[in-house]
Amino acid sequence: MTSATTGGSGPVPARRPRRGSVTGTRTTVAALFLLPAAVLLGALVVYPIGYSLIRSFVSDTGGGFAGFDNYRELFTDDGIRTAFRNNVFWIVLAPTVATALGLVFAVLTERVRWGTAFKLVIFMPMAISMLAAGIIFRLVYDQDPDRGVANAVWVGVHDTFAESSAFPKAHPGRDSPLGEAGGGAFVTGEPVRAGVPVVLPLVGVAPDRMPDGAEQARAAEADPGKVTGTTWQDFTRGKGVGTLAGVDDGEFGYPGMRIEAVKDGEVVARTRAAADGTFTLPQAADGALLRLPAANFAEPYRGVDWLGPGLVTPAIIVSYVWMWAGFAMVLIAAGLASVPRELLEAARVDGATEWQVFRRITVPLLAPVLAVVLVTLMINVLKIFDLVYIIAPGSSQDDANVLALQLYRSAFSDGRPGVASAISVLLLLLVIPVVVFNIRRLRREGGR
Questions:
Q1: What is the chain's percent helix, strand, coil content, to nearest 5?
Q2: Among 57, 185, 273, 304, which lies 20 to 30 A Cα-Cα from 196?
Q3: How would you classify residue 303: left for phi > 0, otherwise alpha for psi between -120 and 50, otherwise beta?
Q4: Backbone angle region of 306, left / alpha / beta, with phi > 0 → left and psi within -120 to 50 → alpha
Q5: Are residues 405 and 380 both part of a single domain?
């Protein structure tokens, strides 16, 4: 559209109305709207970072400039170096295992009817706080098999294949013919003779700790061609010691007690006691010493010291994976739902096995989602604190130390805020490459 001509000149174009901004406001008004968010960002993010950076160059007393002394401490202090080494272990292991399990769970649950229920169960630990999860796993890893689930299972499996002793506290009492043989075993002081019953009294086993199959002890009968005897608990509850080295009513035999006949340092015969404590050895035992092997009195297997110096970090990582595998599974399952089924079916039609479909099609298509999960967990692991602080006992906390925990200990336990600030700056520097990588990856994904 043009306006009318004037004085013979050409047409004059009409003016277009001036447009406002997209939001219909001026730049100043937009800045005012952004100001509250900028203030909060500065107060909650920029200021703490800046203050920590400045404080890291100040002495612990706050009275003077310390230069790079606090940063030099990061590379010379044994506790901080252990924390840094453990953080590397965490970053390499925890996100990888959690992501791998999440991938496996997401793929497998697509093929079962109750997949939704399974996902709910796996994701449920995410609803538990780190503090509560730490308390739970502190009990799970308890050394006592009667309290700790991990050791209860481990001891149960061990005892299935390796018999444990039922008499760990048993030992010879007064007037017993047995004496110490070294290594926890006991041996008779004089050789035994066929046809002469032998008594091997012991004490030290509480009546309520006797094996279930124990019966009233009975004196062995003489057998001219064999060595016979009795081994029993020489103590009667409520009646003092009864007859020393003599079988009394109410005294129980030691069922399953191992007895060996030893001549010239070699075992010539062996047997086990019956439920009433009686035993029989062949003629070859005549003139031998009777020995009760140390295996009879070995302490029962108590399981693994999960929270000891050697296993405390892997044990805590297991608890972390228990919590975060569900998070990884949900994100990967969402990505898996967008994978074109035509590609998977075409691969199967072409003869690909399920493993080939998974490795060559499913995993490559899920690579962006796997990267998101892995990077997110890596950032989360760098600031892990709660689980280590709660689960690791005081005796093993130095061995399980991580940078976030060392920051807390330096600031509040050791009274070294300068070093704590330097640790916080180090954590920031460790997080920045991961964040930059994630931003670049997101931009590449957005540009496709």
A1: 50, 10, 40
A2: 185
A3: left
A4: alpha
A5: yes
3-state secondary structure of 209: helix
Per-residue CA distances from 223 to 167, 227, 247, 253 (Å): 28, 7, 19, 20
Question: Which of 331, 400, 368 minimizes the C-alpha distance to 126?
Answer: 331
In a domain, 14, yes or no: no
Choose the final residue of a domain: 276, 297, 318.
Answer: 297
Residues 292/137, Cβ–Cβ less than 8 Å: no
Tell which of 297, 325, 344 closes a domain: 297
Which of 363, 360, 369 minimizes the C-alpha distance to 332? 369
Cα–Cα distances in Å, from 154 out to 142, 146, 151, 304, 319? 12, 12, 5, 8, 17
Start-to-end Cα distance in the chain: 41
Same domain (yes/no): 269, 331: no
CB 391 within 8 A of CB 137: yes
The strand order across the sheet containing 185-188 reads 178-182, 185-188, 289-292, 258-263, 266-272
Strand 198-202 relative to strand 227-233, pairing: parallel
| Sequential DSSP letters for 156-191 | HHHHHHSPPPS-TT-B--TT-SEEEEETTEEEESS-
Would residue 2 count as lying in a domain? Answer: no
Q: By residue range, what is the domain housing residue 187?
A: 178-297
Contacts of 32 (CB under 8 A, 6+ apart): none
For residue 205, give both structure tokens: 């086993």
- Other beta carbons less than 10 A from residue 32's beta carbon: 11
Of all residues in the chain, the percent with pLDDT exceeding 70 is 92
Same domain, 274 and 187: yes
Handedness of CA 423, 424, 430, 433 (dihedral sign): negative
Write down the pTM of the prediction: 0.74
17: DSSP letter: P
Q: What is the pLDDT of residues 312-345, one digit of tens each?
A: 999 999 999 999 999 999 999 988 888 888 888 8
Structure tokens at 156: 């149960």
- In tens, the pLDDT along 101-131 reads 999 999 888 878 888 888 889 999 988 899 9
Q: Which residue has the tokens 């540009």?
A: 447
- 232 and 251 Cβ atoms separated by less than 8 Å: yes
